[in-house]
Amino acid sequence: MKKGLVLLTVATLIIALHACKKEEPTPAKIYDPTPLTVEVPAFVKTYVGDMPIPADNPMTEEGVALGRILFYEKMLSNDRSMNCATCHKQENAFDDPRPFSQGTNGAFGDRNAMAIINVGWDKIFFWDGRRNTLEGQAHDPVTNPIEMANTWPEVVSRLQNSAKYPDLFFKAFGTTTIDSNLVTKAIAQFERTMVSFNSKFDKYFYQKDSTVFTEQEKRGLTLFSGKAMCNMCHLTNTLFTDRDIRNNGLDVNPVDGGLMKFTGNPSDKGKFKVPTLRNIEVTAPYMHDSRFTTLEQVVEFYSSGVKPNSPNLDEHMPDFGSGLNLNTQEKADLVAFLKTLSDQTFLTDPKFSDPN
Predict the structure, then answer these.
(1) C-beta atoms surrounding 51 within 10 Å
(2) CA–CA dist 241, 57 (Å, integer)
(3) What are 306-353's pLDDT values in tens digits?
(4) 292, β-bridge pairs
(5) Would you say residue 247 has pLDDT above 90?
(6) What distance in Å separates the CA atoms of residue 187 and residue 159, rounded to the nearest whole number?
(7) pLDDT the model gives residue 237
(8) Mean pLDDT, rounded, for 266-282
(9) Strand partners for 89
(10) What pLDDT, in 10s, does the model give residues 129-168?
């Protein structure tokens, strides 16, 4: 009996001491993001300056890493079958090789997806220019009924209840509370890293390596900046776009109103964003409605197909009434030059690929 009593007393004391012992506090999470600068060649800054970064969305390694994961995250779509990369494929310069992208309900859009190249310098987004920030551009496809067809509350709920995302958002933004604003900020950060300045053209024009161009490509460059007048809108300023919105004379009576669908202003009818020509070789089909399947068709249009009576025809195209009338050799030369804008490093860079 005495032995049992002693054991019971000892056990009681151990329990009491354990109860009095203070629990060790859980170490507080530390928010310490790593600033990130998008590296570009010196000539880019000379011609177009530093990439403008929003004050409320500074670039960080953690933010970009999160954005990359979200870019490939299928929880963004209603049935978990689509992500951003479904319609923006790296091998196509983050464009869609299909004439029109297909949404989760099987329906097709009515405009060709736009490539994601050097968008950090852009000031308008979508073919109709309805968004003026990259964050805004990242917002819309999720709720578009013929794209991902989801709702932001549902997306946020899925991410919030996942095992990995709260911690990733804390590392990127200092909070485990996820919202749509932070999702689009992260995706925008990742998209700003998608820079492409390592083409044959860059080696020839900016790095002064005269050996990389053929004689035909040299003739094409001369045409591009001269007789063909391409550089009036697709400036040879490294971006190959003036980042504006214009009517290039596709139709006398445009079926798609372009900017007018957004503003309601008849003077905006037929105006569309001027896309970059970088990596144009792999971004077919061409124009907002995918009407051209080859670069040869595009060049033929500008040579003899521009509609001078198209409403609001852009002022940069005053001489197209009679057409450029390029000859067969000139057309081939121009196409050859356009292909020098391809950047294989960009199209295969593993830092842009699916991290999963």
Answers:
(1) 18
(2) 25
(3) 999 999 999 887 565 567 889 999 999 999 999 999 999 999 999 999
(4) 286
(5) yes
(6) 14
(7) 82
(8) 97
(9) 95
(10) 999 999 999 999 999 999 999 999 999 999 999 999 999 9
Are 36 and 60 spatial neighbours (Cβ–Cβ below 8 Å)?
A: yes
Q: Tell me which amino acid residue 356 is.
A: N
Q: Name residue, tokens 């050097």.
A: 118
Give the Cβ contact number of residue 5 at 10 Å.
9
Residue 180 burial (C-beta neighbours within 10 Å; 0-12, 13-18, 19+): middle
Tokens linked to 145: 């009924």
Give the pLDDT confidence of 278-294 residue by residue, as tens digits: 999 999 999 999 999 99
Tokens of residue 157, six digits = 């709920």
For residue 13, give every residue at least 6 positions away whose Cβ sits within 8 Å of its Cβ, in sequence order, or none. Answer: none
Q: Are 269 and 263 in contact (CB under 8 A)?
A: no
| Interval 6-19 mean pLDDT | 48
Both structure tokens of 121: 């310098």
Q: How many CB atoms lie within 10 A of CB 253?
A: 10
pTM exceeding the 0.85 threshold for the entire prediction? yes
